[in-house]
Amino acid sequence: MKRTLWLSAAALVLSTAAQAAGQNDAGCGLGSMVFKEQKPVHQILAATTNGCFGTQTFGITTGTLGCTSGGLIKSSKEREVFVATNLRAIERELAAGKGQYASSLASLSGCGAKSDAFLSLGKARYEKLFPSAATGAAELIKNLDREIAADAELSKACVL
Fold first, then answer.
1. pLDDT over 90 percentage in the chain
2. Phi, psi at 159, each rounded to 5°
3. How far apart are CA 57 and CA 107, in angstroms?
4. CA dihedral in degrees (25, 27, 33, 38; nearest 10)?
5. Distance between CA atoms of 80 and 26, rounded to whole angstroms?
6. Which of 31, 42, 130, 137 could form a disulfide with 37 if both were Cys (CB 3.0 to 4.6 A apart)?
7. Phi, psi (5° rounding) for residue 22?
8. 53 Cβ partners below 8 Å, 6+ apart?
9. Residue 9's pLDDT is what?
């Protein structure tokens, strides 16, 4: 009986603290994104989901799922990692002047608002972006930055 009383009292105190916090006490992760309400039941479900499936660990490691600090991939390196991972798809889409990978590269290059101009530049200056079949990710980024800087419209619009 005493044990039940203590557990009930502890649950009451913890639930009051969870409501007073005004933030998601479960932290970041998939559970926190799915169960957003500040009710104790939702916070417990969020924490349980994060713990059982490891989504909080994944979010912290990658800087995703609402986890804003840390992450293996810093925002300054996102474009480099994206290009290295998707180089051949980006190459095809820049040659065509359209596509989701090329549009994502426009956003990562700070040209999201001018993605149409970015895609047109990619198509028009494809040979300068990919001077050889062996062009790698680092060389593409260097060539892309140079071409953006040389373009009157994009040099003003794109912010890295």
1. 39
2. -125, 115
3. 27
4. 10
5. 32
6. 42
7. 75, 15
8. 30, 31
9. 59
Q: What is the pLDDT of residues 48-98, one digit of tens each?
A: 887 787 777 777 666 677 776 655 556 558 888 899 999 999 999 999 999
pLDDT above 50: residue 20: no
Judge contact between 29 and 59, C-beta under 8 A: yes
- HSE value, Cβ hemisphere, 13 Å, CA-based, for 99: 16
The H or E element containing residue 78 is helix 78-85
Structure tokens given for 123: 């198509």
In angstroms and rounded to an integer, the radius of gyration of the C-alpha atoms of the chain is 23
Number of Cβ within 10 Å of residue 32's Cβ equals: 25
* Residue type (1 letter), 79: R
